[in-house]
Prior knowledge:
Layout: H1 3-57, E1 68-72, E2 75-79, H2 86-99, E3 106-112, E4 117-124, E5 148-152, H3 156-162, H4 165-224, H5 232-263, E6 271-275, H6 276-286, H7 288-293, E7 297-302, E8 308-312, H8 313-329, E9 336-344, E10 347-353, H9 361-364, H10 388-398, E11 402-407, E12 413-420
Parallel strand pairs: 7-9
Antiparallel strand pairs: 1-2, 2-5, 3-4, 3-5, 6-8, 9-10, 10-12, 11-12
Helix pairs in contact: 1-2, 1-4, 4-5, 6-8, 8-10
The structure holds adenosine-5'-diphosphate.
Amino acid sequence: MKSSTIRFIVVLATISILGISITQIYWVKRAFGLKEAEFDRQVNTALFNVASQIFSLNNTPSPANNPVKQISTNYYVVMVNSDIDANLLEFLLRSEFEKRNIQADFEYGIYDCTHEKMVYGNYVKLSDKVSKREHNPNLPKWVNAGYYFGVQFPNREAQILNQMGIWSFSSAVLLIVIVFFGYTLFVILKQKRLSEIQKDFINNMTHEFKTPISTIAVSTEVLKDTNITQQPERLLQYATIIENENKRLKQHVERVLQMAKLDKEDVGLKKETVNLHEIIHEVVQSIDLALREKQGSIHLRLNASSANLQADRHHLTNVIFNLLDNAIKYCTNQPSITIQTELNGSNISLTVQDNGIGISDENKRRIFQKFYRVPTGNVHDVKGFGLGLHYVKQIVEAHRGRITVASDSGKGCAFTILLPIA
Length: 422
Ligand code: ADP
């Protein structure tokens, strides 16, 4: 899929999700407002009924104005103009609230005119049929100094939210949709990155194979010339070119095969006793041609007194080859490479130090990732697949070793491998 199409889909989907979320929030808020109004209405009616019953029980006339006043969102006061019996009040409140399906716990207090304070109160849990005196509520005093009682609903919001079952359900569903959408987006972008990496890899590979193939084709054309048998030096020169290009092709194939092998779960090490110094000498010899092409030099400081370890000869050879190959490749002037070994407790360390372009701190963490190549702004004068160091790390770790890199951008770098001897 084209990048622009993916971007378009992502933007469109994000706008839709945002639109749905905003609509949902709007409707939830509205539904909450309606439920609040309904709750207030029910409480007002219930308290009005309680007040009427108290008036008729005390034989006092009902006032002309509504005796119920809402002081704040969850606090109501009711004027009664006479003494109130606390138990009677609690009984009336309970039965009126139950009748109107008000299930929120409440606290009430009775105001005493003579002492000018709340004298009696209780916290009532509607789930408890029998009232328990849990604490004496400290309800706010009201400016009006007549007889009154106050009722407060500390969990009013929770109670209203409780009654919004369908809205809670649809909000939860929406949340799941958003999480799922986020995850899908993440997968799409990851797949996109993978497909870009794959495209880069195929491009790189085609380039890498094309050059030696065309060089071999040109050389064989020259060799087909009948006069060439009279010029043995030219014959040898072109035969050498073909040999070298063939070696290059073999290396490329080997590298892709290394990776294909690693993709299978088990690296399948064939461990035997190998001598690290011997392997280093072999690799240095095999890389000699590439080194001479750039007029470079290798300095050996093989200080480890014993270099025998249990390892897979083939893979270990590839590891050292990859490090040396990189040290030569990523050097813009004459490569000067130092290979050093040391015994380090129960480990042997191998350091390949070069004087190349170095690696920035930001890239140091990523160079071991599969297919990762340090971006050079589309000018890849140094060819590669971004597989070498990933392979090196996998193999070193399969040997229960570690690899680290130290580098200052522009001042070369040093790769150190630590391998257990036993
Ligand atoms: P490749 O060399 O095929 O691109 P590697 O996995 O071997 O892949 O290396 C990954 C990247 O790390 C390279 O593209 C290069 O940018 C950087 N790199 C590796 N070795 C060196 C080095 N010795 N000096 C500078 N950069 C290096």
